[in-house]
Amino acid sequence: MAASTFLLRRLPLCVQTGKLSRSSYPAFTTLRQGWSRSHIRPSASLYSTKAVDLDQTNKPYYITTPIFYVNAVPHIGHLHSAVLADTFKRFHEMKGRKAIMSTGTDEHGLKIQQAAAQAGMKEIELCDTVSKRFQDLFDAANISYTTYIRTTESRHAVAVKEIWDQLLARGYIYKGHHEGWYSVSDEAFYPSTHVEEKINEKTGEKYHIAIETGKEVEWTTEENYKFKLSAFTDKLTEWLDNNPEAILPKSRHLEVQGWLKGGLSDLSVSRPRSRLTWGIPIPGDDSHVMYVWMDALTNYLTVTGYPWKNISDSQKAVCGWPADAQVVGKDILRFHAVYWPAFLMAADLAVPKKIVAHAHWTQGKMKMSKSIGNVVDPFTAMQEFGTDTIRFYLMNDGGLVDDADYSSELVAGRYKKLLAGQLGNLLNRSTSVALNPSAKVPKQPSADNVHPDDKALRKKLEALPGLVDEAMANYRTTHATQAIFDMIAEANSNFTHCEPWKLVKDPSNHNRLQTVLWYAMESTRLATLLLQPIMPTKTAEILDQLDIRKDERSWEHARLGQGWGKDAESRKIHTGTPMFPQIKLNNK
Ligand code: MSP
After folding, report:
1. What is d(CA 66, CA 300) in angstroms, rounded to the nearest whole number?
2. Fewest CB within 10 angstroms: 53, 195, 282, 463, which?
């Protein structure tokens, strides 16, 4: 049997039945060394790693997703983190800023070592296979990442070694004895106060779980390297006190401040090689392997070209650090809001500007997870409903604060009511041949003497860009879509109220009909423009139909009356196949 066929048979069914084929696997070594799409690889003269040395004038907007564990194939919750980051990257590009986005896979640690052993595979085979699956997903979902990082890449090992050396040189790492509860699933140590004893009802055996995550823990006692996390309690507190919006949503910010109140204990940052072989060796001590979270968190620096040695001034300006926003699920907040900034402070590097913690997708009100077996396959979902429908559903229903329960019926409902029933309907109305046989853009009505029927809609159109901007500044896509669809609903109901199908019958109503059509078309244009970061493909098709040029799709055009420029009269509105045709659920 060919090696790759053998490999696929051992993976979960959804990997086997997905888009993977033998031909999609280049040799593993090729994959590891050179498959990232693009990344910044500085070279030139050496300079200090101090954050202040980085020129921030032309710094691109830099947003990250967590890097995904390769012990299981992606589910819809993983896709959520990626769509969220992609939406903000696209939004900032729309506003005219250069933006970079990183994503990738977290490939080291006991969890992966054990998953590979269970599948009877070499660790790197598992990593290559599942990492490719994540990348395929992100490509299929139109995630416009600029760097796909894998922690098994050599460029990452360089960054990890550097951060270790910096922490060691500054006296923040020491060798110590550690006793405590370790959860392989969470890859985290827990103090006894965070652990609960349980009894297996079938066997009567006792076991222990971490209260926070419900994951099993085991008692470990070992020699390892420790990071002086305790030395950063005050600095972290000061950072959060002075930057009350550093962590979104506010409730999470307060939660982290609460964790700091009790003081922090030092953190184990290595595991003995006798327990963990699959990882980056501790520089200068091969008998220890780097703690997987220290390894993984450093990926955010790796993609910027850290340690920024041999780098030219112009490259310094575009390296991106510090990140403008780091998107994480609420389950990994402690690692990103406590450990990560502490490592950065210890290395004298700037901390991220914002950490955006989103809530979870549940299925049957339980967090999706491989072990519970309640995961939704994102490939199937996108095949069934279309990529942009799923992107829209995730951004419309998946919030920062409350968990959302995934349901195919709800996806279909949003499609039917909002996308087809509201946006699609407004588009059909604006491009109706019966009402507008010339297919020209109607004349823009004057802002003075607004017809009483149009006043409420006009007010909504004027306010919309500001509302969306505010929602996006607070990383609330749900608020942005709500404002957009609120305006569309008003536009539709005003259209119905104005009865253009009656106006068209009497030529003396020509001017009023033009105005009614203009408002419908302008509302469609504005809504579509603002939905671009969430639904990049569908919106491009709609804007093409409205004959909006590519250079008229940026933020400055997302204003009432900033559409078809001076040559509006020469534009041609197109009607084509319905933008949101009826869909049938697979199982119905
Ligand atoms: N490898 C770590 C992250 C290291 S970052 C330096 C990890 N990986 S993960 O694969 O378990 O999770 C990756 C992301 O997916 C996290 O943000 C996590 O919150 C998110 N999700 C995993 N399950 C989820 C849901 N059910 N719903 C929404 N997002 C969830 O943690």
Report:
1. 9
2. 53
